[in-house]
Amino acid sequence: MAKLYIISGMSGSGKSQALKIFEDFGFVCVDNMPVQMFSDFIDVCLKNQGKYKNVAMSIDVRAGEALTSFKVLLTVLRKKKIDYKVIFFNASDSVLLRRYSETRRRHPLGKSVYDGIKLERKIIDSIFSVADEVVDTSVLTIGELKKTISIVTGIQQSGKQYLNISVLSFGYKYGVPNDADIIYDVRFITNPNYVYELKFKTGRDKAVKQYIEKQKEFRIFFSLFSKLIETTLTGYIKEGKSYLTIAIGCTGGCHRSVFASEKLTSFLKSKKYRVKLNHRDILHGQ
After folding, report:
1. Contact, 130 vs 9, CB < 8 A?
2. Could you give the C-alpha distances from 160 to 121, 125, 238, 248, 261, in angstroms and in order?
3. Other C-beta atoms within 10 Å of 277: how many?
4. pLDDT in tens, 158-213
5. Is it the case that residue 1 has pLDDT exceeding 90?
6. Calpha distance 39→22 (Å, rounded)
7. CB neighbour burial string for 109-124, b if at least 16 within 10 angstroms, e if fewer
8. How does DSSP classify residue 194?
9. Binning pLDDT at 50, 70 and 90, where does residue 246 land?
10. Residues 6+ apart with CB under 8 A from 166
11. pLDDT in tens, 93-151
């Protein structure tokens, strides 16, 4: 096992979000595993290091009395020669109170939020006292939290590497994709489908590409569109977004949307973004 991070902290401090960030970084993540099962799980990881190379596990006040054996667990990890780090996420009482108020959630200890926070701090002190890193999330945005975790863990990724982009071409006649964050309609481009020599080709064929690129409207559109996407991506990264789907549609999903999606993908890759391309409806035209 290359890396093991034990994530803990106050309820409402951002532990769940931190675990999602670790997952985005490629870690196998386990939320609130019973302390009694930690040792057996570590043995499984050691036997399957290809799958469990990097692991993040969370433990918090929900573990109850088992927290008293937390330091014993760390001793076991040291005996197994596991390279681990305990990260404790914290926030001020006033911020925690506000977050509970905004989400209208009950405190996990079942008391009033104020009393629950006070009691939780006493119970969880056994972890706080041995934490290798303490991250105060009181004023952090999601993007800043991601950057902080990157620094704390030594996972040096650029902002562009945080964002996983999917570019999807589709045909409106087969329905708009439900999972798209951005949808753009390229049906304003003259349709190659009505040119007999191009009808049974796709936007990946040279003849179709040339037909579309000759159109002045497309050249103007793509210049503006690519700059718009590039500009907005920096904002998505700043706000901590990890996944973004850009869908481009035409009537049948075979010609115009395919070519525009291919061209956008090439553009984004040239800017060092990680991009996956999928042509949802291209086979309908084959």
Report:
1. no
2. 37, 37, 10, 21, 19
3. 17
4. 566 678 899 999 999 999 999 899 999 999 999 999 999 999 999 999 999 999 99
5. no
6. 21
7. beeebeebbeebeebb
8. G
9. very high
10. 243, 244, 245, 246, 275, 276, 277, 278
11. 999 999 988 888 888 888 888 899 999 999 898 899 899 999 999 988 888 888 888 88
In order of their start, the domains of the chain are 3-156 (3.40.50.300), 161-285 (no CATH)
Q: Which residue is associated with the tokens 């302390």?
A: 35
The span from the CA of 256 to the CA of 169, in Å, is: 9
**3-state class (DSSP) for residue 248:** strand
Reported as half-sphere exposure (CB side, CA atoms, 13 A), residue 259 has a value of 26
Contact 207, 196 (CB under 8 A): no
